[in-house]
Amino acid sequence: MEKIGFSILIIVFLLLFSCEKNNNLRISGSFSEFTTDISVIIYDVSPKDTAKAFEALEKARGIFSYFNSEMNSYDESSALSKLNMAEAGVKTEVPVSLRRILDISRNIHEYTDGAFDVAVLPLVDLWRKSITETGSIPSKEEISRILSISNLECYVFENDSFTVADPLCRIGLGGIAKGYAADSVSAYLKSRGFSDHIVDAGGDMTVFSKTPRMIGIVHPRRNGEMIDTLFVSAGSVATSGDYEKYFDYEGVRYSHIINPFTGYGISDCAAVTVVSEKAYLSDAFATAVMVMGREKGRILIKDNNLSGIIYYLNEAGEVESERINMSGYMKTNCGGGAK
Question: What is the 3-state secondary structure (H, E, C) of the chain?
């Protein structure tokens, strides 16, 4: 379920501020990492803490930049790329910067019965190459050949090291890295005393606020429209879907989220939104539900005490939704609700 397109863009950092109702300030910064727009908003900043807040925003940018550079599978100098150069059968140390996120990824892989798999990168690259070079999807033979080396079962982890069965196996963290970075920035802001904030990593959002904040969910089939509005005061929201990065071929829509069991990006879900306590959990579980499909995905959300919305197409091709444990996030009388 690696999300296609994981490279560094030129950073544009904009610092903005506006007044809150109590004359404290709302200070925000925006920049680009993980090939997406990142936004960090700090609310209820005392005028005397303005400089401190700007310093925190600059540090937040640095945190995103660090994780992007370490977890970029297409940057030969990154820690992840060095891990992906491991020789088959040779015990290799896991880079320190990747140990925690790999442990988390392996746990989620087990929790989702393999639906979330960070080792699917060879399949992602196969699809990208085929679409780019031939304008068509890979052949069944190509997919079958690459499928066998595109899962975490090819790796044996022991303490802080691993061995891999095939040198062509590769790990990509695009399905969890943004959420992981957003959580890290949120934790940093709390440590600096900024307990009212939103961190938005291209739709992977962490909210920690006194006032429920309004979060719009993009319509998976209508550009520029919102399909739902959530109100979140403490939690993280992420959405995965087949509507931003996909490939239409002979009447079939192939998502950028590759199923590690079949090798194809096909799902009966158009989009999945998950709300949890951590952005990396929401990110990874939303991806896993896209892979599992509606029936198994619904069970996954319920069994893990998460909240979620599964969007799907009815027989008429219209988007419908199934809400799971969402009543606390969809009340319009929460008060406040300002972005």
Answer: CCCCCCCCCCCCCEEEEEECCCCCEEEEEEEEECCEEEEEEEEEECHHHHHHHHHHHHHHHHHHHHHHHHCCCCCCCCHHHHHCCCCECCCEECCHHHHHHHHHHHHHHHHCCCCCCCCCHHHHHHHHHHHHHHCCCCCHHHHHHHHCCCCHHHEEEECCEEEECCCCCCCCCCCCHHHHHHHHHHHHHHHCCCCCEEEEECCEEEEEEEEEEEEEEECCCCCCCEEEEEEEEEEEEEEEECCCCEEEECCEEEECCCCCCCCCCCCCCCEEEEEECCHHHHHHHHHHHHHHCHHHHHHHHHHCCCEEEEEEECCCCCEEEEEECCHHHCCCCCCCCCC
List the chain domain ranges. Answer: 79-164
What digits encode the pLDDT tens for the residues 17-31?
455 556 899 999 999
pTM: 0.89
Topology given in CATH for the domain delimited by 79-164:
T-fold (1.10.3980)
